[in-house]
Specification:
The protein is mainly α and about 300 residues long. The protein is about 80% helix and about 0% strand. Strands 1-2 form a two-stranded antiparallel ribbon. The longest helix has about 30 residues. It is globular and about 50 Å long. The protein starts with a helix and ends with a helix.
Length: about 300
């Protein structure tokens, strides 16, 4: 039964991703907003809803390990899996935005700050507020950095319908978030039958499940030759996971962070984030980079098992 639920949930994810991509592109065109900004804000926040729901629920129930592991694992999957797949399937990746100069640091700062906060062994409510302030700063930065030529095509503007777009976006997010939640629950049920730890469930099964929205949306965007939107969604989602997800979760209840016990997993998240910075610095948007990222993911999984 759990396998059937997982398959149906995947179908909902893919179906919902179509709505999100199509309507997000219409918003970008109508309001002269770059695809990267749409990906890093609207899509990133939307696809981070599963991580937020799972981690906040886990924190409220006293399962802090799942909340923290979910964010660490999602960072690894978002970069190594999602970005790796995007590089492999996209026909032409030539971002219009200088991702290294403008955005790569934002993917690295939150995880470094997380490590500094975790040195005392916990994330407090004060730490959570700091995280939320960082998220607000990131959104302000994105708004100020949006640069795109004005669109004078009045025909495109006339075709834009707010009501239809909002309804389809909501339907898309419901399918994506709902599909992810059911997929997570099914995976968790299977995992518990094998008696694995909460950290393992959070790091792999839950993190993979909550990364499915990013994966499906990024694949759809890449196939539509909209790499800017795909990469923007990945970077924005990682920022949101650390700042909003951990921030809100630690405000609900302090989260224990054992940096020594989970040194390998946290180090893996730092390494793949540094790889993202290196890729953007050298503009290595190609299949070779995708293979390297997926190879790193395979090594992380192999070593964790």
């Amino acid at each position: 039964m759990d396998i059937l639920i997982f398959i149906v949930s995947m179908g909902a994810l893919i179906y919902g991703a179509d709505f999100i991509i199509d309507e997000s592109e219409k918003i970008a065109t109508h309001f002269n907003i770059s695809s990267f900004i749409i990906g890093a804000t609207l899509i990133a926040l939307g696809t981070s809803l599963p991580e937020m729901a799972v981690s906040m629920s886990a924190a409220a129930k006293g399962s802090g390990d799942i909340a923290v592991a979910n964010v660490i694992g999602s960072t690894i999957f978002n970069i190594a899996l999602v970005l790796g797949v995007v590089f492999l399937i996209a026909k032409n990746i030539n971002p219009h935005r200088d991702l290294f100069a403008k955005d790569s640091a934002w993917s690295l700062f939150p995880i470094l700050i997380f490590i500094l906060m975790g040195i005392d062994g916990k994330l407090s409510a004060f730490d959570g507020v700091i995280f939320l302030i960082i998220m607000a700063a990131y959104l302000l930065f994105l708004i100020q950095s949006n640069q795109i030529d004005e669109n004078d095509d009045e025909e495109d503007k006339e075709k834009f319908a707010w009501t239809k777009t909002i309804v389809l976006l909501l339907i898309g997010f419901v399918f994506v978030v709902g599909g992810a939640n059911f997929a997570i629950e099914a995976a968790g049920n299977i995992a518990r039958e094998f008696g694995v730890s909460e950290w393992f469930i959070g790091l792999f099964l839950v993190a993979f499940g909550t990364s499915l929205p990013e994966l499906t949306v990024a694949i759809k965007a890449a196939r539509a030759n909209n790499a800017d939107m795909a990469i923007g969604a990945i970077i924005g989602s990682n920022v949101a996971n650390f700042t909003m997800v951990l921030g809100l979760s630690s405000i609900i209840t302090p989260l224990n962070v054992d940096l020594n016990a989970y040194f390998f997993d946290i180090s893996a998240a730092v390494i793949v984030t540094i790889m993202l910075v290196f890729i953007t610095a050298n503009k290595l948007y190609n299949k070779s980079a995708g293979i390297v990222l997926l190879s790193v993911l395979a090594l992380v999984i192999a070593n964790s098992f």
